[in-house]
Design a protein that fits this description.
single chain, five-stranded antiparallel beta sheet, 30% strand, alpha+beta
Length: 125
């Protein structure tokens, strides 16, 4: 089977970052950027490609809105764009459990909760 020759690719990018109360200085922007990279790294590290999706060569992309508390705990999440593939959409729920808690936001952010929009991609190469 060609699966052995393929590489699993999990892409995580932060699409949107909805917060207020953070000064727009280069130090704060760097803190925010570092935090977003840490969040993306955590998600990518804990994302698992379901075996049944691998066997059937199913790929997909979903978008999830995640609300994070000051300590990094996920308070809510909402799948705003499902993949359309039941096996991958079920994997999203398990992924949200595995990534909780996320890295805590930087101290320069004054909000009690932060909301991110994150694309989760399952792709075979």
């Amino acid at each position: 089977m060609r699966q052995a020759a393929r590489r699993l690719s999990a892409l995580v990018m932060i699409l949107g970052f909805v917060i207020g109360g953070m000064a727009n200085t280069s130090a704060h922007a760097a803190d925010k950027s570092s935090w977003l990279k840490a969040v993306a790294k955590t998600i990518a590290k804990k994302q698992i490609y379901p075996r049944s999706a691998l066997a059937r060569e199913i790929e997909g992309t979903a978008k999830v809105r995640i609300t994070v508390s000051r300590d990094g705990r996920i308070t809510t999440y909402d799948v705003i764009q499902p993949t359309g593939e039941a096996v991958l959409d079920r994997a999203l729920e398990r992924l949200m459990t595995r990534i909780d808690p996320l890295p805590a936001p930087p101290a320069g952010i004054a909000e009690k909760e932060l909301t991110l929009v994150v694309p989760i991609v399952w792709s075979l190469h």
